């Protein structure tokens, strides 16, 4: 038999090491951030989530005195980017900017979620609140929601519409419109807004739902027509574009972009990020830059208030998804 002899000296040395390690960990936490932060964006370059992430990243890195690196992870209606952050270390150095549809609708339509949106992602701050845009190529001759309904009903099964992915807000809204008006239209899901915009501009597809920001230059130039927007109000950059509610189809729920972190991220990091983001969102410069991108003045909420918004919207949007019978095989 082998006996292990532990001396009093070794015990005292070990205890001293533990005492020394504890303040080191505390000092490390207090020094956050001590290195660059990765901001994962669950959308492609040029999409709405990317636009607002980059508008936020520059002043955020100035406030934190560390680089904030935008990392685009598009695909599967935000599932890929969100999963990346859900599984990342909860040390405050990986955060997520995601649209509400990727948080709220995916759990309903995805048969196998690789993460739990409520348990694995921690809400930090809400970044904007707005609807989305229904647009058409001018060659279609479709200028309003009523035009779209007439055209689709006169040509059942012949008119396709695009969205930035199965389970996206655009997919959900159009399926509701189809159900209300008895329209037969084929859904074409794209891997993000950017390729959808390219096909809309080229008239490879005539109609589609896109985010609130990225199509604005094309609408102003006349290359695309905005038929209407969802949400509770018209967008500041396109004040002449009516809401769908104004045109007879009530859909006044606002979507949002939000910043999240992996569950378990230290509370002090969450509070610091929330405070810095809210301070940035309150500046005249960002309010004006958001307005140019068709985003109304962002609401200011602490992390707990945003978490309550997420819980409420999860229930509301998932209920709508079930009514529209959205489900992926």
TrEMBL record:
Keywords: Receptor. SUPFAM superfamilies: Periplasmic binding protein-like II (SSF53850). InterPro entries: BUG, Bug_dom1. Belongs to the UPF0065 (bug) family. This is Putative Bug-like extra-cytoplasmic solute receptor, TTT family. It comes from Variovorax paradoxus B4.
